[in-house]
Amino acid sequence: MVKPSSDRPRPAKGKSHPQRKGKPKPPSKQTPRKPFKKRWPAKDSAYSSRPGRPQKNIIKPQPISPEAALQEERPDLVYGRHSVEAAIANQRPINRLWVNARLVFDARFRPLILDAKANGAVIDEVNTQRLNQLTQGANHQGIVAQIASHDYVELADLVTTAKAACRQPVIIAADSITDPHNLGAIIRTAEALGAQGVVIPQRRAVGITPTVAKVAAGALETLSVARVVNLGRALEQLKEDGFWIYGTASESGQTVHTTQFDRPIVLVIGAEGSGLSLSIQNLCDVLVSIPLAGKTPSLNASVATGMVLYEIYRQRWLEKLPTIKLGGDQNHAV
Fold it and tell me: Composition bias, kind Basic residues: at what positions (predicted)?
């Protein structure tokens, strides 16, 4: 009886298995296999990362131009409690309201949420991370609203409204202001002191962005802003409409406190550092400077705007004060 294969004795080491009986196996006709060949090209020595060899040319991302960076923010968003409150109070159409879930029942935010909901806005309770994404990490105070993009006015309409508001209107013109915080602060100061409007150029300048609206703290809801294609042509048009163009220039020998501002005024403010462009300076009727006693060579654009505006309105406030006679021919304001 044949033993099971598992019980058959194994051949000793160094000995081959016994050949089977019968005809010998014919040689195989199969073509011998070629050595393994890589399907990708050999690595270029120029791209080798070994020391002493040239490195691969990596294309680095190009920096974003200032003009493109100004358009990164979504113009349909406002954030911050005061900005959202002003938008709702002035009946701006709000499509959606994102609120931090922790603030839904907060006494400071509850009225805003209820007003927005009553006007048809969709209320989304979200976390802080989502709000940071919407605002690109800005100080949103836990609330963000999606509204219609800012409604700029035509320059002619701004002039008509300004002249109807007072006898000697004041309009601010911003020349190449690219910092949204500066523009927002200028708008806030202009509205607070009583100016009738702001003019900004379309190119090489920031428009009304969420950051501008946030810094303006609601002033955009009551102050008109005109955006023009060419600021120089706009100033020429304002001259024809009876306005005097006053520009700020640190090299001017005429200081702001020795200048009379008793007429319709367009105050032109330049960017911090570069100041007013030469073409805009040539269009100004008067160039004034702010005297500085310290070693700091210049002021922030929004700070300079506030100082000149205050001097303009200080002179007008003094004109309205009643006078009394103290003796002789001297009159003094009370």
Answer: 11-40
Domain assignment present for residue 241? The answer is yes
**CATH number of the structural domain spanning residue 167:** 3.40.1280.10
Structure tokens, 7: 């019980």
Among the residue ranges 108-117, 188-197, 211-220, the one predicted with the least confidence is: 108-117
DSSP β-ladder status, 77-79 and 143-147: antiparallel
CATH number for position 97: 3.30.1330.30
- Does residue 182 sit in the same domain as residue 296? yes
Structural domain boundaries enclosing 91: 69-147
Q: What is the tens place of the pLDDT at every residue in 272-325?
A: 777 898 999 999 999 999 988 888 888 899 999 999 999 999 998 887 777 655
Q: Which residues contact 238 (CB under 8 A, 6 or more apart)?
A: 155, 159, 171, 199, 245, 266
CA distance 301 to 211: 16
93 in any annotated domain: yes
